[in-house]
Design brief:
There is one protein chain. This protein is α+β, with helices and mostly antiparallel strands and 155 residues long. The protein is 23% helix and 34% strand. The chain has five helices and eight strands, in the order E-E-H-H-H-E-E-H-H-E-E-E-E. Strands 4-3-8-7-6-5 form a six-stranded mixed β-sheet. Strands 1-2 form a two-stranded antiparallel sheet. Strand 5 and strand 6 form a beta hairpin. The chain is globular and about 40 Å long.
Length: 155
């Protein structure tokens, strides 16, 4: 079974097997237990600030398996991985840089798209370098924001 993950309303893609992602079919009860939180978020910006500052909070607010893309999606060299909670626990770096980390690395943050149910955040490294360019895609589920995809466009 394949699912075409077109989460950006402003982008138009031609469906191909290259863009299709395998998904696991689970019962609605199982799916709901995976993406719940105890307290709804007041706003996306408040959620994002907390998400960036706490690795524990990050790991509690991820849709699993998390779709992780590497490469330029306008080319054919995109690698797609599905990251499990075990893979995320083994990371020795945060998924998203904190305010302190962005200042230290000279990374700019932009909320490039934000609606009531969907948001995209882009981290762009220093202008003279393409070494850090990451797009994060978030989804609001029952009042709680979750990271559902990360696209590392760094070279």
């Amino acid at each position: 079974v394949f699912f075409f993950n077109d989460t950006a309303a402003t982008e138009i893609y031609t469906l191909s097997l290259h863009d299709a992602l395998p998904i696991l079919i689970v019962s609605p009860t199982t799916a709901l237990s995976v993406v719940q939180c105890s307290t709804p978020d007041h706003s996306f910006k408040e959620f994002l600030q907390r998400f960036e500052e706490s690795i524990e909070f990050q790991r509690s607010r991820i849709v699993l398996p998390m779709v992780t893309r590497f490469g330029d999606y306008t080319m054919t060299n995109v690698v797609i991985e599905l990251w499990s909670s075990e893979k995320l626990k083994k990371l020795d770096y945060p998924l998203i840089l904190s305010l302190h980390g962005r200042k230290k690395e000279h990374v700019m943050e932009s909320i490039v798209l934000s609606t009531k149910r969907y948001a995209e955040v882009f981290h762009d490294g220093p202008p003279e370098s393409d070494l850090y360019r990451v797009l994060y895609k978030f989804r609001n589920i029952d009042g709680c924001w979750f990271l559902e995809e990360m696209h590392d466009k760094s070279k």
